[in-house]
Amino acid sequence: MSTVRTPNARRDPAPDYAVVVPTAGRATLTPLLRGLALGRGPAPSEVLVVDDRPERGDRPLPVPECDLPVRLLASGGRGPAAARNVGWRAATADWVAFLDDDVLPGEDWRARLADDLGALGTEVAASVARIVVPLPDGRRPTDDERDTLALTGARWITADMAYRRQALVEVGGFDERFPRAYREDADLALRVRRAGWRIVEGSRVTTHPPKYGGPLASVLRQRGNADNALMRAKHGRGWRDAAGEGEGRLGRHALTTLAGACALGFGTAGLPRAAALAGGLWTGLTAEFALRRIAAGPRTPGEMSRMAATSALIPPVACAHRLAGERRVRRGRAVLFDRDDTLIEDVPYLADPEKVRPMPGAADALALLRAAGVPLGVVTNQSGLARGHITAAQLRAVTCRIDELLGPFQTWQVCPHGPDEDCPCRKPRPALVRRAAEELGVDVRRCVVVGDIGSDVEAALTAGARAVLVPTARTLPSEVALARRYATVVPDLSTAARVALELA
C-alpha cells in the first residue's frame, strides 16, 4: 500500500497476540502445544491450529488437552502459505505469532514474546525469534542437519515470527503461489519492508530439532528452485542480497548439466574426443561439489556415499525445477480492481470502516478468481489524503474492513495525491497498474484491470494491460463508448471475473 506512515515511538502496553500453527498432522504438534500451555507469561488470546492435510479422513490431529484456547481450522492441503493465511485471517488479535508445528518454544517463550512485542513502536511490523538447532557433540553435522541448521542464519523465518495483523492486511499476507515451506517467509518480509514497515529481532529463543529425510532428501529439496524463479520475478535479480541469502549454485549446476548432456550427445554422435572433454568437465564439477559437501559433514561411509550419489543428481534436477518455475512465472496472470464503485460502494472520502458496503456480486466474483488461483490486487486513487479529508490511519482502517469483507488482496496500490500534483501514479496514468504487476511478479500484459470509469480503462491500456469496464449510474456514456472500442464492457462483476479469466 502506497500510503505514508509516520513513525511513532509509542509502546504497546500489553500485547494482544494469537498463535497460528500450520500443521500436516505430525506428532510434534503435541509437545509444541504442551510447551505453550506450560510456559510463563501472558497467554495468547487463542491458538489457531490449521490442518493442511489434503485428505484428513478420520485421522484426528494430535492436539493434547491443555490450558489454552485452541481453535481448529482447515486449509485443504494448499500448502503452508495458504494455511497461515487461513489462520491469521481468522485471528482477531493485534499480533499474530506464527510457529511451525515442529518447534519447541522455551518455558519463558510467552514472557519473552510479550517483552518483544510490548517494546515495539507502531512503525514495526514484525519480530523474529532466534532459532536454535541442537546437534550431537563430537562430530560435524550431516547434510540433513546442515539444512536445518541454515534456519539459524535465516533473516526472516516463520518457524517463529510474530507479525502485526495490520501489516499482513496491508500486503495481503502470504503469497499462496509458494506451495512449500520455502521462500514464502522471505517474500512476505520483503513486501512488508517495501511497504515502509520495519522488522526487528526479538529476544525469545525457539528450538528447532534437526530434520532427517531419506537418502534422496537433498535431491527432493531442489524443488525450491521453482520458488526461486517466483522470487526473481517479484523482487528482481538482486533478491538474494535483499533477503540476506548467499550466492546460489544454479549457475554451476547449469554448467554441470550442460557438460553432462554434451558428453552424452557427443558420444552418441560418434565424437569421442569431444565427449571425453565434456565428460571430464562434468566429472570435475561433480567431484568438486561432492567433496565440498563431504568435507562439511561427518565423513562416515554412509554419508560419503550418499553425498557422492546425490551430487550427481542434484544439478540436472535443480535446473529442471528452475525451468519449470520460470515457465509458470511466464504464464502467471493477475486481476486488479478499482476500489470505489467497483469493489465497494463509493462514499466520498470514506473514513469510517463501518460505512464499507461491498458492491453486488463482488464477493462471488473474487471467490471465482481465487478458486482459479489468480492473484488479486487493488489500484485506487485516494486524493482525500492529499486534500486532508482522510488520514492515513483512517485509510488503513477502511482497508482492513474491506479485507475482512472481501480479502485477501495480494497488493494494494494507492495514489495519495491530488489531481493537480502531476504525479505518475494517479489514474488514468499507468504507474499503479505497473507497480501492482511488479509487486505480483506478473507480466503487466497478463493483467486485467476491472473498473467502473474511463480512467481505469485508460490506466490499464496505457500500462499494457487488458481492461474490463463494469458501468454504474455514474459512468459517463463517452467512457462506455471508449471501453467498447478498446476494452470489454460487461454488466456486472460476476461476468467481469469470467471475462478476466479468459483475457489474462
TrEMBL record:
Keywords linked to the UniProt accession:
Carbohydrate metabolism, Cytoplasm, Hydrolase, Metal-binding
Molecular function per GO = metal ion binding; phosphatase activity
The UniProt entry's GO biological process terms, in alphabetical order, are: carbohydrate metabolic process
Q: Which Pfam families match?
A: Glycos_transf_2, Hydrolase_like
Name the InterPro entries on file: Glyco_trans_2-like, HAD-like_sf, HAD-SF_hydro_IIIA, HAD_sf, Heptose_bisP_phosphatase, Histidinol-phos, Nucleotide-diphossugar_trans
Q: Which residues form the Glycosyltransferase 2-like domain?
A: 19-129
GO cellular component annotations of the record: cytoplasm
Give the top-rank taxon of the lineage listed in the UniProt record for this protein.
Answer: Bacteria
Keyword Metal-binding found: yes
Report the locations given in the UniProt record. Answer: Cytoplasm
Record carries keyword Nucleotide-binding = no
Q: Which family does it belong to?
A: Belongs to the GmhB family.
Listed NCBIfam families: HAD-SF-IIIA, Histidinol-ppas
Cross-referenced PANTHER family, in alphabetical order? D-GLYCERO-BETA-D-MANNO-HEPTOSE-1,7-BISPHOSPHATE 7-PHOSPHATASE
**What is the protein name for this chain?**
D,D-heptose 1,7-bisphosphate phosphatase
The source organism is Saccharomonospora piscinae
Q: Please spell out the taxonomic lineage of the organism that makes this protein.
A: Bacteria, Bacillati, Actinomycetota, Actinomycetes, Pseudonocardiales
